[in-house]
Amino acid sequence: xxxxxxxxxxxxxxxxxxxxxxxxxxxxxxxxxxxxxxxxxxxxxxxxxxxxxxxxxxxxxxxxxxxxxxxxxxxxxxxxxxxxxxxxxxxxxxxxxxxxxxxxxxxxxxxxxxxxxxxxxxxxxxxxxxxxxxxxxxxxxxxxxxxxxxxxxxxxxxxxxxxxxxxxxxxxxxxxxxxxxxxxxxxxxxxxxxxxxxxxxxxxxxxxxxxxxxxxxxxxxxxxxxxxxxxxxxxxxxxxxxxxxxxxxxxxxxxxxxxxxxxxxxxxxxxxxxxxxxxxxxxxxxxxxxxxxxxxxxxxxxxxxxxxxxxxxxxxxxxxxxxxxxxxxxxxxxxxxxxxxxxxxxxxxxxxxxxxxxxxxxxxxxxxxxxxxxxxxxxxxxxxxxxxxxxxxxxxxxxxxxxxxxxxxxxxxxxxxxxxxxxxxxxxxxxxxxxxxxxxxxxxxxxxxxxxxxxxxxxxxxxxxxxxxxxxxxxxxxxxxxxxx
Length: 485
Prior knowledge:
Strand content: 15-25%
Number of helices: 19
């Protein structure tokens, strides 16, 4: 009808049945436009969020009441004017969408120094040409401030807890051991039974499982509050210095020695615990001398002529197979059996994968306090990657480092999959389980994982809730409460 004022409408047999004139068509189009505009205006007024639209010249076309509240700019003052008159160019995500066509989803953004928002942006296309851009923003300034205040408060509480622990007469010996898996609960029970005993304890486990934490728990369970806990890494001391480090030395005992003499680790551990980490690395000649001390409870310092009474309990740890070392002649059999009174085998993280989320959140919290970076949200995909990974480096060496990396890169308060170490990213890509990339709170993530664990336990027990509660280590009433929730 751009060429003709009237169009003839033909029916069957090509017989005319009517005509359409330009005026009627325009009136119909205009009425349809008015209806659409009414819907559009009502929708915009009803939305509580901030909605803003710019055209290809970056002029503001839509500015909702939500935008007025967030940015304190009235609709009548900004509509029709370039948005760059009111905001710095480098802070305008909408402008980036207009120029590059990029889309942003739930991105934390600071359009002004005093405002923090979650923003979604999209370019507006007409026949493959960008003619504008739209932004939807939710004000989270108060939540960010509250989160920061909570972080500061947690710092103070954490500091106070540490100070109180120094003066507490009965600190929790397992406070630093995170996890509620059956394997960890069994080890905790074994350690509790060591109370009021002096037996030698041998802790076995792969590198990075946190053997020193369990050694400290053994110490805390059976020693006094102010009893010393002295740790020595047998693989980090030169064989030539090992004896003087362990037994100490008298003044002038050898060239270069301190003229005042020096107390050895055994003396420093008097009335407490001597933790011999990496005991499998101890030189053979030192193994003989250590065995004698354990048997006779007496020793001579280097260069000394007077025996000293030894008063300490031994906890040793290794990631090596001591029985194999005995067969190879690299570890004394008599010392092995002297140490092998009570043995605690710490499972690697891959054998208690259910503890991964609690450990991950513990380390995230630790580093968010250290670096003063509050965490607002964590991707479900991140947690899925953590649960599916094999963790060859275990807890202390790999998981802890991975969580520190995530906090370092979480500048906007969100933990994202792309910030994981490369080894975990590669594993995630090979995984068959894909989760939505939406972000939820840490508490929601814990609850979601708890739900999966409970349902799995019920499935394993064929619907028997009492047996499932026993498997989970909780009462039947607690299980029913969780199921109802």
